[in-house]
Amino acid sequence: MSMPAPGAPLPADKHLLPSLTDPAEHAAYIRARHPDADLARSPGVILLYQSSLAEHAARRTGTRPLERWVSADLHRTAEGVVLCSGFGRGAPAAGLVVEQLIALGARAVITIGTAATLTDILQPGALVICQDALRGEGLSHHYLPPGRYVAPDPDLTDRLAAAAATLGAAARRGRAWTTDALYRESAAEVRQYTAEDAVVADMEAAGILAVTRYRHVPAAAAFAVADSLASRAPRTNAPQTGEGLRLLLDAATRALTDRDAKSGR
Question: Which residues form the signal peptide (predicted)?
Fold first, then answer.
């Protein structure tokens, strides 16, 4: 094993090192207590971060809670899609539950949440479907070779974009900058990453896309703009953001069920 340079957090070959821990251990622990803990029959999982969106989804007809099979709240919709919420923010928290979900059989993952725009073109409520994510967080570097970007699954992303368009959404595709440090986002970084065509900043996408790629599970990501780093404007609870999130939830549900139907399951 090559050793890291002074101050570097990871050896260069970290993604190749065998892990002492395995999410299958969590799955075995849960199934010993809940033999029905199986997500393989679901079209997929949608990750939700905003409590208002999770509460909206839970109130829908036919949606019912599941046991706490992972370190999060789970609901199954009338379409069979599993909603995962209540696990916190950031790539480490999201990556942990995604590992647990996949170990229980999750076949596809879509993450939808808010993001800050890096450009004055996007206003609150604007929708962005992730074309790839700049790996400014730490989690992805434990899973993938050194690199600058990680891309979502192209087929699932196309289905998500098509579903959003069918619902009348003016969603654009764009690059996200994923960061761990919400309160350390700087103007210099915004200039750097907009020069690389990033249009939004988020805290989860790169990590989730790395975990799912490592586990060979398709994933996609989408965002509703909530605030701005281009001309700093704090979040104002604009109703358009909530409307955008609800539309993305509908689009993600359609994308997963459409993929499931096309697979003949």
Answer: none
* CATH number of the 31-259 domain: 3.40.50.1580
Count CA within 13 A, CB hemisphere, residue 44.
26
Sign of the C-alpha dihedral computed for residues 252, 90, 59 and 116 taken in this order: negative
CB-based contact 106:215 (threshold 8 Å): no
Query: What is d(CA 140, CA 138) in angstroms, rounded to the nearest whole number?
Result: 6
Tens digits of per-residue pLDDT, 190-226?
Answer: 999 999 999 999 999 999 999 999 999 999 999 999 9
**Beta pairing class for 82-85 and 172-179:** unpaired
Q: Name the DSSP class of 173.
A: E
User: Going by C-beta distance under 8 Å and a sequence separation of 6 or more, which residues neighbour residue 170?
Assistant: 127
SS3 54: helix
Check residue 10 and give its pLDDT.
Answer: 76
Q: How far apart are CA 105 and CA 116, in angstroms?
A: 32
DSSP assigned state of 60: S
Q: Give every CB contact of residue 247 below 8 A, 6+ residues apart in sequence.
A: 127, 164, 167, 169
Tell me the mean pLDDT in the region 233-253: 90
Amino acid at 104: L
Given a contact cutoff of 8 angstroms between Cβ atoms, the answer to whether 226 and 114 are in contact is yes
Calpha distance 36→68 (Å, rounded): 12
CA atoms within 13 A on the CB side of 228: 14
**Domain residue ranges of the chain, discontinuous segments joined by +:** 31-259
| pLDDT tier at 49, thresholds 50, 70, 90 | very high
pLDDT digits (tens, 9 = 90+) for 88-142: 999 999 999 999 999 999 999 999 999 999 999 999 999 999 999 999 999 999 9
Tokens, residue 134? 């700049």
